[in-house]
Write a structure and sequence with these properties.
By secondary structure, the protein is α+β, with helices and mostly antiparallel strands. 25% of the residues lie in helices and 25% in strands. It has two domains: 164 residues, FAD/NAD(P)-binding domain (3-Layer(bba) Sandwich); 126 residues, D-Amino Acid Oxidase, Chain A, domain 2, CATH 3.30.9.
Length: 354
């Protein structure tokens, strides 16, 4: 018997696996590689909503938890994933400068926003009005993190690379069984794949398609993450990740000509040098209508739990949400209402899962 079956080895599932390892719990994790949003993600962590210039609830706690998890995983795997990097918000006008300095005075933001205008120019970057500096930012090499962590779990013989068939679950008073595996709990961390989960697929997980490019641009000399209408993340060797698009209707993971054209157009408004596109990828972010995660236990099947809806902030949210769900399962701690699946009503979590 094992403590947990984890379904999904993206950021959410792997962060829960890390929590289980820390707590000395046993688990089996399933991954069919049907979802790509975690590997496609730029992995940027940023404690500020730059679009609205507003704070993020528990941002510092999320950052601290994230860094602790990344250090623990890096030590276990003897690898490096975390890349602390300053983030520069490019200003497009004097009005944007003024809005920035006003935001710096907000108590929720003054620890993260610098009130000094960055007027330095960078080769290849168009910036007539300068930049605002966001502190405590960086990016995580999510592709490497997922690949290396999955390889480690495979060596431990706890990773099963196949699709999970929900209809083969069998419930007993104390346990749940799947084929020949018996477990105390199952944690579903399937990302947008939740749409095929009969126990939770009535919850409002919308899914938002995002497309990104990796470019080579020797003419750019910027060691910071630059955010304008698109972000530009320095990967090293004159390569940069560029993204991302937002498409609420297309639910495929196939890159599109329209997405590429949109990214190129916005990129040309940010840089004034030549570039070469190295790769073009797409994934479906697991987003919700209220932009909050989906955590909790099924009211009719107490061994079934959900960790989903991390949206565009999976790197920052994943570790903190894994902590919350683990403590909810093992210590029966109440989840914050804003992330609890019960906020949507019991009728979306019926006893009938056919």
């Amino acid at each position: 018997m094992t403590d947990f079956i984890i379904v999904g080895a993206g950021l959410a599932g792997l962060m829960f696996a890390e929590k289980a390892l820390r707590e000395g719990r046993t688990f089996i994790i399933f991954e069919d590689e049907s979802q790509h949003s975690s590997s496609v993600a730029a992995g940027v962590y940023n404690p500020v909503s730059l679009k609205r210039l507003s704070g993020i609830s528990d941002a510092q706690q999320q950052l601290d938890t994230m860094h602790g998890y990344l250090q623990s995983i890096a030590s276990r795997l003897n690898q490096h994933f975390d890349n602390p990097t300053p983030l520069l918000r490019r200003f497009a006008s004097i009005e944007e400068q003024n809005n920035w300095f006003h935001a710096c005075e907000k108590p929720s933001l003054n620890a993260f926003l610098s009130d000094r205008l960055v007027s330095e120019s960078f080769d290849g970057i168009i910036s007539p009005f300068g930049f605002g500096l966001v502190k405590h930012t960086g990016w995580v090499n999510t592709r490497k993190l997922l690949a290396d962590f999955r390889s480690y779990l495979a060596l431990q013989q706890v990773l099963i690379k196949e699709a999970f068939v929900h209809s083969e679950l069998v419930f007993t008073p104390q346990l749940v069984s799947y084929r020949e595996i018996y477990a105390r709990h199952i944690v579903f961390a399937e990302g947008f794949g939740m749409s095929r989960n009969p126990f939770f697929n009535r919850l409002p997980l919308n899914g938002t398609k995002g497309e990104v490019l990796v470019i080579e641009a020797p003419g750019i000399r910027a060691a910071a993450i630059v955010k304008a209408d698109v972000f530009l993340v320095p990967l090293g060797n004159y390569t940069y990740r560029v993204g991302a698009t937002y498409n609420w209707s297309d639910k495929s993971s196939v890159p599109t000509n329209e997405g590429r054209a949109e990214l190129e157009q916005k990129l040309r408004q940010l840089i004034d040098c030549d570039f070469k596109i190295i790769s073009h990828e797409a994934g479906i972010r697991p987003t919700t209508k209220d932009r909050k995660p989906l955590l909790g236990t099924h009211p009719h099947f107490p061994a079934l739990h959900l960790l989903n809806g991390l949206g565009t902030r999976g790197v920052m949210l994943g570790p903190a949400m894994a902590n919350l769900l683990y403590d909810h399962i093992e210590s029966r701690r109440q989840l914050p209402r804003e992330v609890d699946i019960n906020r949507f009503g019991a009728d979306l979590l019926p006893a009938d899962h056919s």
